[in-house]
Amino acid sequence: MAFVPGEIVERFRKQFQSAETPLVYRAPGRVNLIGEHTDYNLGFVFPIALDMACYVAIAPASHGQLRVYSHDFDKESSLPVADIATVKPTRQWSDYIFGVAQELTKEGFSIPPGDMYVVSEVPVGSGLSSSAALEISAAVALLGGRAFPKIELAKLGQRAESQFVGMPCGIMDQYAAVFGHAGAALKIDCRSLGHEYVELPSNVRIIAANSLVKHELGTSAYRERVAECRQAVAALREIDPKIESLRDVALDFFERVQDSVPLVPRRRARHVISDTQRVVDLATAARARDLPEMGRLFVASHRSMQYDYEISCAEIDFLVDAAIQIPGVYGSRMTGGGFGGCTVNLVAPEAVDTFRQQLRAAYHERYQKTPAFYDCKPAEGAGLL
Ligand code: ADP
Ligand code: MG
Fold first, then answer.
1. Which ligand number lies closest to the CA of residue 135?
2. Is residue 291 part of a domain?
3. What are phi and psi of 165, to 5 degrees?
4. Minimum-distance ligand to the CA of 134?
5. Ligand 1 pocket member 29 (CB < 6 A)
6. What is the 239 CA–ligand 2 centroid distance (Å)?
7. In contact, 87 and 102? CB cutoff 8 Å
8. Quick check: pTM over 0.85?
9. pLDDT tens readout for residues 126-174
10. Whole domain around residue 17: which residue ranges?
């Protein structure tokens, strides 16, 4: 479902009792196909930007505030523009916008008083990155056409989330929201911050299945994983001081020296290093239209998250295990930060209906919940609607 600009304009006017005609900006969510928790280790990731997006309608106002309203949360929040540079996070949804505004002021942009109406199609907290869609749509809305390099936009969104909101995320989500491209996946090098577009085989559908669970463990475990990766780097530097991140560690080197890394950081490192390699391999398989190999890589990546990185959960493992039993499913894996959210599935087009029916029935029988399905079609990155 894509929003009609006119509808948002009407909602904006009603909410803010304004006669202004706002400009409407959008930024997409994303589904990551492979390479999980590799971004903050400066490895590769392989997302596609989705046609589900966050929309921000913005217009100037004379009340001296930056006033924001979320349709999805039905909440309004405001901040005097004079306080943007010094405001502290309040642990609410508006932190994502005020954090972006603060970062923009640090870059020398003035933020005039205004009203922002936010409405999103990206399911919140499901691993499809509603947060980056919000940050980047807010950032382009606040920029209002003022020139700013795309890569800086992605980095700014990431700083807002990691430093202001306090989630120590990598660059993938914001990068995908900025650089997404219709018809292709993005193979992103999180060290050089460059990317290639990789066209996906046309005879496969990418379906995300939402477990509808979000375990609260998420944020603290994320921090723990970031720290454990640092411990692994510290141990590996004893062997080779040139190593600065897990990106610098080749899989065969790691296999030779892994015994000198303590057990838990070793398993975390094994996931990151092998999943970075799987990004390279998935891109190769996609170009060769090798769907069985793509599916094999999906499942290998899931097992690595399940057993080595330990970021899956029972519901997600169930969805993966059930999906790969269904004829026409090439592969399945969890996508996103972990502990719930969505799986992403590679499904033959003619098998999509059976896939949905069987997975829905199996999940409902086991967990009494009906998973939501999203057809993931690559879409363009952020911009003016
Ligand atoms: P994900 O990015 O996987 O959806 P996160 O936990 O990273 O999950 O981000 C979700 C948070 O982003 C929400 O709790 C909320 O604070 C903010 N957010 C995302 N979309 C919206 C929205 N439409 N309205 C208000 N806040 C939103
Ligand atoms: Mg997020």
1. 1
2. no
3. -70, -35
4. 1
5. no
6. 35
7. yes
8. yes
9. 999 999 999 999 999 999 999 999 999 999 999 999 999 999 999 999 9
10. 5-201
**Among candidates 78, 145, 137, 79, which has minimal Cα distance to 109?**
145
Most informative mutation of 32, 56, 128, 134 for ligand 1 (most atoms within 8 A of CB): 134
Any domain includes 355 = no
Are 228 and 192 spatial neighbours (Cβ–Cβ below 8 Å)?
no
Q: Looking at the domain assignment, is residue 38 inside a domain?
A: yes
| CA 244 / ligand 1 centre spacing (Å) | 32
Specify the ligand 1 atom closest to the Cα of 165.
16
- Output the six-digit token pair for 291: 């769907």
130 in contact with ligand 1, CB cutoff 6 A: yes
Q: What is the CA 162 to chain-centroid distance, rounded?
A: 13
For this structure, is 259 an active site residue? no
CATH of the domain at 170: 3.30.230.10
Q: Give the pLDDT of residue 2.
A: 57
pLDDT band at 6 (very low <50, low <70, confident <90, very high): confident
Task: Tell whether ligand 1 has an atom less than 6 A from the beta carbon of residue 55.
Answer: no
Distance 122 CA to ligand 1 centre (A): 9
Candidates 51, 115, 173, 248; catalytic one: 173
Query: How many domains would you assign to the chain?
Result: 1
Q: Kindly give the distance from the C-alpha atom of residue 329 to the centroid of ligand 2, in angstroms, as a whole number.
A: 27
Residue 265 lies in a domain: no
